[in-house]
Write a structure and sequence with these properties.
Structural class: mainly alpha
Largest sheet: none
Number of domains: 1
Helix content: 55-70%
Order of helices and strands: HHHHH
Shape: elongated
Number of strands: 0
Distance between the termini: 48 Å
Radius of gyration: 19 Å
């Protein structure tokens, strides 16, 4: 029973969720140079990227989800870096004299933050 619970569909029980430990082990196989924080982060991101974690027992689905999440995370990181630069410039302005373009910078920053947060909490992004 213990092995069946740990390995789920590998032992014929496709209704079992993949444990965090099992997923971390699989991530370490895909990315052996990852430190423990990266592995933990990827466990959360990958778990949130699928409807049912047992899908990640399938090697192709795990690899696909891992690659897809890597691209989404890189895109969000790039957007965040660009937004940070714009916000730093904006912080030198007087908020009482913001132009419409400066207000849009703030709105885009909220959207970028929402996208990053949704990757981690597994909820849809805010439409702005």
């Amino acid at each position: 029973m213990h092995l069946e619970k740990l390995h789920g569909s590998r032992y014929g029980n496709s209704k079992m969720n993949m444990s965090c430990h099992e997923l971390a082990t699989r991530i370490e196989e895909l990315q052996p140079e990852a430190d423990s924080r990266d592995v933990a982060r990827l466990c959360l991101l990958l778990s949130n990227s699928v409807d049912q974690t047992e899908q990640l027992f399938d090697e192709d689905k795990l690899t696909g989800a891992w690659q897809d999440m890597g691209l989404k995370l890189q895109a969000a990181t790039d957007q965040h870096a660009a937004m940070t630069s714009e916000l730093e410039d904006l912080s030198n302005s007087d908020p009482t004299e913001f132009t419409p373009d400066q207000v849009w910078i703030l709105i885009r920053a909220i959207k970028v933050q929402s996208q990053i947060l949704s990757l981690y909490v597994g909820h849809p992004t805010l439409n702005v």
